Amino acid sequence: MANVDISRALQAFRDHIDELAETWYEGDRAKAFRHAAFQQVAPDPLISDAQVIELTAIDKAGDLEVDGWFVDDTGEFVLLFQSVGGQNRVDEASVMKFWESAQQVLEAARVVASRNQSVRELSERLEERLRDGYNLRMVFASKAGFVPSASEFGNGKAHVDRVVTLSDGTRLTCRCSLELLDEGDIAQKFDDYRSGFRGEPTDVELTVEPNHSYEVERGGRRSLRATVLASEIVSIFRMPGMRFRLFSLNPRGPLASAKVNKGIARTLDSPTGRQVFHLLNNGLCATCSGFELKDGRLRAEKFQIVNGCQTTVTLDARRPEELTETMVDLKLAVADTALAESIAAASNAQTALRAKDYASFERQQRQLWFEFERLQPPWYYEIKQGYWRFVLSDAEKARFKTGRRKRHIEVQPLAQASLAFLGYPAEALDRVRFVFEGIRTPEERQAYERAFPADVRAEQLLLPWLLLDYLERQTEQRLRFSTFHVLWLVAALIKDYFGIGQSDYFSLETTDRLIDSRNDWLPSIARIAYNACNIAFKRAQNITGEQIDLRDFFRASGELSRGVNPLELLSQACKQELQIEVDNQRDPRRALPR
Q1: From CA 104, how far away is CA 246, in angstroms rounded?
Q2: What is the SS3 assignment for 570?
Q3: Which has the closest alpha carbon to 98: 154, 56, 31?
Q4: DSSP letter at 458?
Q5: Residues of the chain with confidence (pLDDT) below 50
Q6: Residue 334 belongs to what H/E stretch?
């Protein structure tokens, strides 16, 4: 990039860090840098802020040099992440310690000694996935960069076969990569992805070999089927200012930038695989406002790939000589915006696109977006992912901010908050995807309507959202994976006080009074719920006489083992904790509005 572009990208990235610092970290920019860097190196830059907080919760005493981690089951790799947000460049010794962390988290003695619950979880998941043949990706992000010897060490470990020892002494070889990124590198990733959300769609031109295409016109609709060299697709992707602008019509905006599919890559590893790639791969589905094929040159106006991001990004990572040996199928349709969105929805429904991305097509969700924006003060309800971070200007965001604190709601966390509020905390934790499956699968509509009843209003949904927002910030008070159960117990306590059913929302009037007074009653009622979660979990372990995994405990919606029902234990413990407070004349519900 030119210097002016570097300056612009850095400033946009630093503004993003400032927003994160004020919203989540009480002004701590080092933690905000960690957060922002993790977002850009994770397989999905649209990963929610709450998810980042969970995935970087390991960054505390006993973290064994790991600040964050992520298991990608689509790309078949495990990401280990480290960050330094200070002003000094990282030395070689620090990078070497991070490199050794992969082995350390596999050593049982070190994991037990660390007393870090996230390290224990990482150790189990890492060993499990390495046995399954996953790759290991390690990323060290430093705001100030690295000394030359550290960079040299990193370059030497860019792509290597690494031998690791598992907890039972088994030695296996995995493909491992180490990447060192400074602030400029991460800002460039941020800007590349952001470019997909801004600017006008671009016209493209590519070569189509003779007899490798045919045109179809039916019902006044033109389309083209072609098989083209992979190098042609990559050349479009690499055009200055292009990249993720190619994916602007996807249901959630441009798709994830860094997701290289391991299965696709494996096919490209051999000459035989490259020869049959177009037979094994689904190819690309694209739309345009018009095209012309003449003398072997295909010209398409407002060209958009609506399905094929993983294929494109994976091809972009290959050597030029491999691309000239590889062909890919292209289906191109002339479509207006409405038809292009329908094609995007239909084609992505046949892939691993996350179900929540279809919220932007649901009429009720669009109505809720309208209602949230008209609350006083207004809230921005993001039903198409990435638009808050990458589309809205600072002036537009200012309408939804008080100081630097934002009034911004994301669709999946809202569905989770609603499910927990209505009595389904286990589903909120582990099965929220079925809510959005209900959008595109009419026979499963019940799952969607459980989270978003037909008559629910934005004002009513705002209360569970604000409860979730408060609880997500109390990382030291609550057990991991218990957030939605704490929310459920809080809601149950206040619903019992007002005499309404567990599966009901409050009236609009009561909702407004609860929201306005939440600082008076929420902290003390939440403490009862925190205590209940701890007590119930310990009781479950005492009953079974076994070590129970925290996630397994909180994901269960029925009996776990030996007659242990987590939801029943939690409810009993919450009632007992409340009774203790009542007996001591400290009933926190007295602070609730009447």
Answers
A1: 41
A2: helix
A3: 154
A4: H
A5: 1-4, 253-258, 349-353, 355
A6: strand 327-334
Sign of CA dihedral 378, 384, 385, 386: negative
List CB contacts of 435: < 8 A, sequence separation 6 or more.
Answer: 355, 356, 415, 419, 447, 448, 450, 451, 452
Cβ–Cβ under 8 Å, residues 17 and 28: no
pLDDT in tens, 229-273: 999 999 998 887 787 778 776 655 444 444 556 677 788 888 999
Write out the DSSP string of 537-564. Answer: HHHHHHHHTSPPPHHHHHH-SS--BTTB
> What predicted TM-score, i.e. pTM, was given to this entire model?
0.68
How far apart are the C-alpha atoms of 246 and 195, rounded to whole Å?
A: 10
Sort strands 171-182 and 290-294 into parallel, antiparallel or unpaired: unpaired
Rounded Cα distance between 287 and 246, Å, is 10
Instruction: Count CA atoms within 13 Å of residue 62 on its CB side.
Output: 14
Q: What is the dihedral of CA 134, 136, 141, 147, to 10 degrees?
A: -160
CA atoms of 151 and 141, how far apart (whole Å) = 12
> Which CA distances in Å does 475 have to 336, 574, 585?
47, 20, 28
Angle at 66 between CA 63 and CA 72, to 5 degrees: 125
Dihedral over alpha carbons 15, 20, 22, 28 (to 10 degrees): -100
Residue type, 309: C
Give the residue from 504, 495, 489 showing the smallest Cα distance to 453: 504
Q: What is the CA radius of gyration of the chain?
A: 26
Question: Nearest Cα to 173, choosing from 267, 74, 266, 102?
Answer: 102
301 phi and psi angles, rounded to 5 deg = -95, 140
Q: Which two tokens stand for residue 30?
A: 């080092």
Instruction: Provide the CB-side half-sphere exposure for 56 (13 A, CA).
Output: 25
> Is 437 within 8 Å of 444 (Cβ atoms)?
yes
Q: Is 527 exposed, middle or buried (0-12, 13-18, 19+ CB in 10 A)?
A: middle
**What is the DSSP annotation of 205-248?**
EEE--TTSEEEEEETTEEEEEEEEEHHHHHHHHTSTT-GGGGGT
Each residue's pLDDT tens digit, 337-373 = 667 767 766 665 444 445 456 666 678 888 999 999 9
Asked if the bond preceding 425 is cis, omega within 30° of 0, the reply is: no
CA dist 54 → 39, 110, 492, 506 (Å): 12, 22, 25, 30
- Which two structure tokens, joined as six digits, stand for 545? 């006489």
* 302 token code pair: 């407002």
Dihedral, 552, 553, 554, 559 alpha carbons, nearest 10: 100
Using H for helix, E for strand and C for coil, what is the string for 357-421? HHHHHCHHHHHHHHHHHCCCCCCEEECCCCHHHHCCCHHHHHCCEECCEECEEEHHHHHHHHHHH
- Helices in 132-169 by DSSP H: which ranges? 148-156
